[in-house]
Write a structure and sequence with these properties.
Radius of gyration: 22 Å
Shape: globular
Number of helices: 16
Structural class: alpha/beta
Helix content: 40-55%
Length: 435
């Protein structure tokens, strides 16, 4: 498939057993690359060590604490030395970070000191820090400004040591130009396996019409809006939400209170599903519905389309970029839940008359995300970057600043452990008193 065999390191800040899309992307890319290249995949797990997965693929496990299904890395000085030792033994030609914190930052520092070319993929808008995860922070101008300035300082310093950014779409490139105008980038979509989703049978809606949205229970996903939408829909319109009810305990609890308040028998707040469970849920559903405020390139939207589910959603980065066909309904974020419900009902009534054809049109929108084609494009980037790096071995200064940020990230991970434990206690107490 490719000309030369390379040694490639892929990093992820997550454990792929969780619900984080970027972890699935990193794992899938590592597996596909290993068909022709030597790959070392850094991921979170329980104990430090090397796991040999195949002749060409090994996992370098970074120890972490799993608290409420959230993996928090334990990057002590001893662990960092062990990671650096394994990287030196592997001797990569290039490193590809699928994140810019923890393992992504650690490997960037090492790569800069060793003169190894580095590529990074952003799975969120680079000019946005906490505002991306918590969009409502924008309402506080001071907090939003401080968030932007801190993010800009970190990202601009980080990118001085990056040889190329793989941008998922023009939304990312716009942010890059704002933060670091001189940074080189190439646009390549996320690559995933969609065969099992495309193989699902297209089920024509009959009496009950089922809607699905899988996603973390957080404000950015905006499930509260969807719950309010279904207040204005017929009882045979069923909404099934799926997400981690432990890590998203506070938001999930808020949704459950809303369901109880309005006595909504057609709304189900479900727990997180693995891929097999998610496939079964898609198999039963007829439509994919979303009110997410921010999604750079949402995997669940892509999976929903591949499963043949027409999309009914609020406009965001993903729906503007991916949903380009008339087989879906995209509404502005300013729309009210009642107006959203009215438009949804009209769309469903119209689409049900020609559901089979519409589902096929949805599936056709996902061809660009085929893992084989996106991997070929990614390898082309690697080869070009390695060649350019040989001709230009100069790395910019700023390693001390990056190391300072790494120290701060360690403090942040400690605080995250404390908060996660407090949420765990609160969750168990709520279950106890609910009995």
């Amino acid at each position: 498939m490719y000309n030369d065999i390379m040694k490639i390191v892929i990093t992820s800040a997550h454990s792929f057993e969780g619900e984080t899309g970027s972890a699935l992307i990193a794992k899938t890319l590592a597996e596909e690359l290993s068909k022709e290249h030597k790959v070392l995949y850094l991921r979170l797990g329980q104990k430090f060590g090397i796991q040999k997965r195949s002749n060409n693929l090994s996992y370098l496990i970074i120890p972490s604490l799993n608290i409420n299904n959230i993996c928090v890395p334990l990057l002590t000085q001893g662990i960092r030395k062990k990671i650096y030792k394994e990287l030196a033994i592997f001797g990569p030609d290039i490193i590809h970070g699928e994140n810019i914190i923890f393992g992504g930052l650690l490997t960037l520092i090492w790569a800069s000191e060793q003169g190894i070319p580095y590529v990074v993929t952003f799975h969120w808008q680079p000019q946005e820090g906490m505002v991306y995860t918590y969009p409502h922070l924008k309402a506080n101008r001071l907090l939003a400004y401080l968030d932007f300035m801190l993010t800009k300082t970190y990202i601009s310093t980080y990118l001085k040591h990056v040889d190329r950014v793989i941008a998922l779409n023009k939304v990312i490139t716009k942010g890059l130009k704002l933060i670091s105008p001189k940074t080189k980038y190439t646009i390549i979509d996320n690559g995933i396996h969609l065969e099992r989703y495309k193989a699902l049978k297209i089920r024509i809606p009959k009496d009950k019409i089922e809607f699905i949205f899988p996603g973390s229970y957080i404000g950015r996903k905006n499930q509260e809006f969807l719950v309010n939408v279904f207040r204005f829909l017929p009882k045979n319109y069923i909404l099934n939400l799926y997400g981690n009810k432990i890590s998203g305990f506070l938001y999930a609890q808020k949704l459950e209170k809303l369901v109880k308040k309005y006595n909504l028998k057609n709304v189900n707040i479900n727990d997180y599903l693995d891929e097999n469970g998610l496939l079964n849920a898609y198999d039963k559903a007829h439509y994919f519905v979303s009110a997410s405020i921010k999604e750079v390139q949402s995997l669940v939207v892509i999976e929903g389309l591949a499963a043949g589910k027409p999309i009914i959603a609020l406009e965001n980065e993903t729906t503007k970029d991916v949903v380009t066909d008339g087989c879906c309904l995209i509404l502005p974020q300013t729309v009210s839940p009642e107006l959203f419900a009215r438009n949804l009902k009209l769309f469903v009534e119209k689409t049900n008359k020609n559901y089979q054809k519409t589902s096929v049109s949805c599936r056709n929108l996902t061809d660009r995300f085929d893992i084989k084609s996106t991997t070929i494009k990614t390898v082309d980037v690697y080869e070009n970057v390695i060649l350019e790096s040989k001709n230009n071995q100069v790395k910019h200064g700023g390693i001390f600043i990056l190391k300072t940020f790494f120290a701060l990230s360690e403090i942040a991970s400690t605080l995250e452990i404390i908060v996660a434990n407090l949420l765990k206690v609160r969750f168990k107490l709520s279950q106890f008193f609910a009995q």
